[in-house]
């Protein structure tokens, strides 16, 4: 009887990892478990995202702690690279090669036999939409084509875990949309994908699971909404649109859970700050039913990754 | 093994594409061109003398260290500078194997250049120009190619290791070539035992004849040029035998290659992150 | 107004003209090159021949004055010919010329190393990191860019050749305290400065052209090394072959003369013996004259021997010989030797003898080719890819 190994709860595990470059600390005592699926890796410049990815792919050795991917130590374990794919951030290729040549070479370097490598290269190139341009030299590719080619080399050997370092940088909106679709398809196909990016709203549309870094430290990890709820330092900001917004404001200012109200004449509404959003929301229908304070629109001004990012990084 | 073979092919292609390859071919053609010039100009210059100056002075002292400096330090450094080393590090290939395979590819290319253009040069020197002191030029050509290949192998292993230890490989390599191989090797002192060119010269001297018959008697052009005191020690008993020289050069190359592989295995290659 | 704009403020003052724009690039290039520790060490090492030159000229000045200060170091001067030390003022020009000769020869090799350290990065790095638009999008012309980059090389070579040569000359004058020294040695000062500038311009243009050919500064360094080293090895090889041929010809003739001298049967009678002695004397005399003629032919042949010109640095040396006027100085020193040794001494010490104008033309030609390469490789902004 064949026994199937239980699915891993964490694909990438950092345990008390520190990495310093001389006196500069890149990653500072970081413990992190990245689950299967698509995970966003966020942080300002110098947060340690590149360091983290290079530690996870075995290019750097941790100064302290351990890094493991798929339950195996990464450093000095080249065999593990069969199951890992990396789309690096730097725009570097063997410019004299054609796209096909490059992907085929990467497949061969991954240990595939020649017919296997051909097939895998063709499949990878097609999956990124580069079949039409695959015989041209990479030196003549546009930025979007180069990003797709990089993505293809990360996928050609069908890895289980894929690390994408700023895959959307410098791409036009069409290429960006296509690349995001590819990432979503990867996630849907059962691969674990870690996407490092500055483009917050795009990461948000890819995945709700994020890891936030700042100054080499782990600031937050998990679902964006859950993180937001845990940030009790900053009250939630909710915008209410109402024709008689001043009268609505007069009523709300008496509520205990309302900490502040800002009049927004240009939006015909008010901005309410509250530390108990659930209580606030539960009382809103009643006040909306009252005369003169019928609420036309309700939305949260800061229930987004950008807001979470700003709160956590700027403190 | 398939990965290593793919890496080997990739490295050969990298070495042989572009202007660098063309420049190296032209450089290696230089001795043949000069030999042709000398043949057409210098009446009375014997083929053996022309062969000695180019095959055993010009090529080993000038061309081979330069060729090794062009190719060997770039094995890893060029990949790092171009930031393409990432694509190699994320494949299932250990860093030690990466270094050794790249070194093997470099040696293949450099030895190929050495052998082919040594053959061209010998053809230019001896074509239609027989020398009674040289009955079998083809055999001498093979011997010269083999000796120079051994020498360039040692240089490549040395400069490859240097490139892992310092970024200024070119300066260090030039100082080494000029001071050790150029100056110390020509002194009749035991310090020349640490130079590559000493061993290649001894192998050449013991396996090939450099005696030219003149009207006043025999003249050993190699002994004069290489400071070998054959008047006092005609059989060169104070110098190592051929087998010893080959062993020393081969062992030295192996040790340098293994050392390079070990250092490469332990090293981190910083592409986006700071070196220190 | 109580509140002031903290943003960008446009410069309304006067801007400098084009005349000095190159200086900004040159100054920046020199500063950034000096940041490297290796460069600073190389510069320090480059000044040691200058210190030796200055020391030699100062010592000679004290010798001329008959100063007791150098009595203790007089034994150290025994490497010089006693005739020189016996009348230092008479041989002032000779000693100064040869001191400058040695100084410039050593400094030339050091200059090649310095250019190897500084030159390759000058344009290749700008190509690699696409910095050319940053330069050419300013109100700066290509000529300003070229002159600025050339100014980096000129700056460094001025630091190690021109400045030390001038400083040594002034020190020598001060230690000699003889105003006639200015008249006697001014040519050396002007010659060394002119030579320094010639090397700077020639080598500077060459290395800039090489640097513009590739984005990888390592290959530029290797091309420079090839030019310097391989051309020298090639020239040496070709010259050696030629010289061996001449030497072999001399030795063959010597051997033939020896054979002729000793070829006859042993004489039996006194008359035959006297005749044999006369015959041998004649053969020896003729042999001697023949050798003299041969050596003279060899010496004459060096005056049209083009082989040394293959070496780039030999061409610079030939210019230096002409600018400093070293030939008369070497001939003076050679006159101290026995007549039969003078020819060989001159051949060994006085350097290449072919017309200096050949080297000047070759270097000028290389400079023109370099300028052509730079024109082609560094395009103006509208033609950049």
Can you characterise this structure?
The complex is a heterotrimer of chains A (315), B (276) and C (385). Chain A is of the alpha/beta class. Chain A is built from ten helices and 14 strands. In chain A, a hairpin with a 2-residue loop joins strand 4 and strand 5. In chain A, helix 2 packs across helix 3 and helix 3 packs across helix 4. Chain A is elongated. Chain B has 276 residues and is mostly helical. Chain B has one domain. Chain B is built from eleven helices and two strands; from the N terminus they run αααααααααββαα. A two-stranded antiparallel ribbon of chain B has the order 1-2. In chain B, helix 2 packs parallel to helix 6 and helix 6 packs antiparallel against helix 11. The radius of gyration of chain B is 20 Å and the shape is globular. The relative contact order of chain B is 0.13. The mean pLDDT of chain B is 89. Chain C has 385 residues and is mainly alpha-helical. In chain C, 74% of the residues lie in helices and 0% in strands. The longest helix of chain C has 45 residues. The two termini of chain C are 48 Å apart.
Rg of chain C, nearest Å: 28 Å
Helix content of chain C: over 70%
What order do the SSEs of chain B take from the amino end to the carboxyl end, as H and E?
Answer: HHHHHHHHHEEHH
Fraction of residues in β-strands of chain B = under 5%
**Helix count, DSSP H or I runs of 4 or more residues of chain B:** 11
Report how far apart the termini of chain C are.
48 Å
Provide mean pLDDT of chain C, rounded. Answer: 85
Intertermini distance of chain B: 34 Å
Q: Which ranges of chain B are low-confidence, i.e. pLDDT below 50, for 5 or more consecutive residues? A: none
Number of separate domains of chain B: 1
Largest interface: A-B, 37 and 34 residues
* Oligomeric composition of the shown chains: heterotrimer
Main sheet strand line-up of chain B: 1-2
Helix and strand composition category of chain B:
mainly alpha
User: Can you count the beta strands of chain B?
Assistant: 2
Shape of chain B: globular
How does the overall form of chain C come out from the CA principal axes? Answer: elongated
Figure out the total of helices of chain C: 15
- Would you report the number of β strands of chain C? 0
Q: Could you give a short account of the major beta sheet of chain C?
A: none
Largest sheet of chain B: 2 strands, antiparallel
């Amino acid at each position: 009887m064949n026994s199937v190994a239980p699915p891993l709860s964490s694909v990438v595990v950092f345990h008390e990892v520190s990495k310093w470059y001389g006196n500069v600390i890149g990653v500072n005592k970081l413990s992190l478990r990245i689950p299967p699926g698509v995970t966003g890796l966020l942080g300002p410049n110098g947060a340690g995202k590149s360091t983290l990815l290079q530690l996870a792919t075995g290019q750097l050795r941790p100064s302290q702690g351990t890094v493991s991917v798929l339950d195996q130590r990464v450093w000095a374990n080249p065999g593990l690279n069969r199951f890992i794919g990396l789309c690096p951030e730097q725009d570097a290729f063997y410019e004299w090669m054609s796209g096909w040549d490059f992907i085929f070479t990467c497949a061969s370097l991954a240990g595939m036999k020649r017919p296997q490598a051909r097939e895998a290269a063709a499949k990878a190139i097609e999956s990124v939409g580069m079949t039409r341009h695959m015989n041209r030299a990479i030196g003549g590719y546009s930025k979007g084509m180069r990003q797709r080619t990089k993505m293809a080399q990360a996928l050609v050997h069908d890895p289980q875990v894929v690390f994408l370092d700023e895959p959307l940088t410098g791409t036009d909106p069409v290429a960006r949309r296509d690349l995001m679709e590819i990432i979503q398809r990867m996630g849907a196909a059962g691969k674990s994908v870690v996407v490092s990016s500055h483009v917050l709203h795009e990461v948000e549309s890819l995945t709700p699971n994020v890891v936030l870094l700042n100054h080499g430290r782990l600031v937050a990890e998990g679902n964006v909404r859950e993180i937001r709820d845990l940030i009790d330092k900053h009250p939630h900001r909710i915008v209410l649109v109402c024709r008689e917004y001043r009268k609505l404001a007069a009523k709300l200012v008496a509520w205990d859970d309302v900490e502040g109200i800002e009049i927004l004449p240009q939006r015909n509404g008010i901005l309410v700050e509250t530390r108990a959003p659930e209580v606030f929301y539960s009382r809103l229908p009643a006040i909306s039913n009252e005369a003169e304070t019928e609420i036309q629109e309700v939305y949260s001004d800061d229930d987004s990754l950008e807001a979470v990012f700003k709160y956590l990084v700027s403190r | 093994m398939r990965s290593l073979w793919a890496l080997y092919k990739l490295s050969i292609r990298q070495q042989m594409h572009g202007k660098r390859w063309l420049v190296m071919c032209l450089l290696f053609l230089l001795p043949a061109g000069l030999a042709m010039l000398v043949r057409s100009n210098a009446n009375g210059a014997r083929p053996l003398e022309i062969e000695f100056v180019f095959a055993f002075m010009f090529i080993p002292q000038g061309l081979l260290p330069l060729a090794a400096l062009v190719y060997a330090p770039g094995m890893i450094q060029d990949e790092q500078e171009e930031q393409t080393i990432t694509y190699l590090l994320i494949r299932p290939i250990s860093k030690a194997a990466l270094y050794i395979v790249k070194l093997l590819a470099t040696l293949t290319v450099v030895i190929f250049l050495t052998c082919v253009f040594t053959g061209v040069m010998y053809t230019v020197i001896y074509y239609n120009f027989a020398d009674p002191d040289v009955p079998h030029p083809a055999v001498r050509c093979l011997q010269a190619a083999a000796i120079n290949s051994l020498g360039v192998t040692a240089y490549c292993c040395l400069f490859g290791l240097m490139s892992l230890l310092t970024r200024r490989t070119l300066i260090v390599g030039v100082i080494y070539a000029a001071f050790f191989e150029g100056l110390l090797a020509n002194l009749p002192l035991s310090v020349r035992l640490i130079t590559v060119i000493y061993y290649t010269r001894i192998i050449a001297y013991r396996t090939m004849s450099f005696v030219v018959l003149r009207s006043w008697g025999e003249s050993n052009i190699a002994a004069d040029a290489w400071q070998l005191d054959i008047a006092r020690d005609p059989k060169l008993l104070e110098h190592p035998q051929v087998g010893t020289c080959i062993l020393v050069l081969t062992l030295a190359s192996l040790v340098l290659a293994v050392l390079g592989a070990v250092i490469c295995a332990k090293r981190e290659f910083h592409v986006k992150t700071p070196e220190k | 107004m109580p509140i002031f704009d903290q943003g960008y403020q446009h410069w309304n003052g006067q801007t400098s003209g084009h005349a000095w724009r190159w200086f900004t690039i040159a100054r920046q290039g020199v500063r950034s090159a000096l940041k490297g520790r290796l460069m600073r060490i190389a510069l320090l090492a480059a000044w040691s021949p200058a210190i030796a030159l200055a020391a030699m000229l100062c010592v000679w000045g004290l010798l001329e004055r008959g100063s007791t200060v150098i009595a203790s170091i007089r034994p150290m001067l025994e490497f010089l010919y006693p005739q020189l030390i016996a009348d230092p003022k008479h041989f002032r020009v000779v000693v100064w010329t040869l001191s400058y000769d040695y100084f410039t020869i050593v400094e030339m090799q050091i200059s090649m190393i310095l250019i190897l350290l500084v030159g390759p990065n000058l344009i290749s790095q700008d190509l690699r990191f696409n910095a050319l638009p940053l330069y050419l999008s300013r109100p700066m012309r290509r000529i300003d860019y070229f002159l600025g980059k050339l100014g980096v090389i000129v700056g460094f070579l001025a630091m190690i050749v021109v400045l030390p040569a001038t400083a040594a000359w002034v020190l020598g004058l001060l230690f000699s305290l003889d105003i006639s020294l200015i008249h006697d040695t001014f040519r050396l000062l002007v010659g060394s400065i002119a030579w320094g500038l010639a090397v700077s311009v020639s080598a500077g243009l060459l290395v800039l052209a090489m640097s513009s050919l590739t984005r990888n500064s390592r290959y530029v360094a290797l091309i420079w090394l090839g030019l310097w080293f391989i051309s020298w090895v090639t020239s040496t090889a070709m010259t050696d072959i030629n010289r061996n041929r001449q030497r072999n010809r001399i030795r063959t003739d010597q051997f033939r003369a020896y054979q002729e001298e000793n070829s006859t049967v042993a004489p039996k009678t006194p008359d035959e013996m006297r005749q044999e002695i006369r015959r041998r004397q004649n053969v020896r005399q003729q042999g001697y004259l023949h050798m003299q003629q041969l050596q003279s032919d060899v010496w004459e042949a060096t005056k049209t021997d083009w082989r040394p010109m293959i070496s780039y640095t030999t061409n610079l040396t030939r210019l230096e010989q002409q600018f400093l006027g070293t030939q008369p100085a070497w001939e003076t020193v050679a006159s101290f030797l026995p007549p039969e040794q003078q020819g060989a001494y001159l051949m060994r010490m006085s350097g290449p003898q072919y017309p200096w104008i050949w080297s000047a033309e070759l270097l000028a030609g290389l400079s023109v080719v370099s300028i052509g390469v730079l024109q082609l490789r560094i395009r103006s902004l509208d033609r950049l890819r």
